[in-house]
Design a protein that fits this description.
Layout: E1 3-7, E2 10-13, E3 18-25, E4 34-39, E5 46-51, E6 58-60, E7 68-73, E8 78-83, E9 92-99, E10 114-117, E11 121-126
Parallel strand pairs: 2-11
Antiparallel strand pairs: 1-3, 3-8, 4-5, 4-9, 5-6, 7-8, 9-10, 9-11
Length: 127
Amino acid sequence: QVQLVESGGGLVQAGGSLRLACAASGRTFSRRSMAWFRQAPGKEREFVAGISWSGTSTYYTDSVKGRFTVSRDNAKNTIYLQMNSLKPEDTAVYYCASQTAYYGFPYTTRDSEYDSWGQGTQVTVSA
């Protein structure tokens, strides 16, 4: 497992941008595909974006395609989520997660496939 800490959340107006970061500790970070999930009030947690262990492959849920970009820097043990053109419906607590298996696929959307989670960071988009 790895330990994960998110940062970068906040309050932004619709149309604005935020960049989330997730810092990882542990020696196996570079072998694990990672993902961002989010959970809005009263809703189930949902997959947002995934990135392969190498950073060469990414996958997004339809609602954020063209607006969000996931990236990683294995030298810094960090992944990022650049969020542009934010909408009120993007309001949620955002979590980063690390896959249980090594060298997994970025399109793994089931949260049961992830064994390490951050504490979450709140993103609020006002209309």
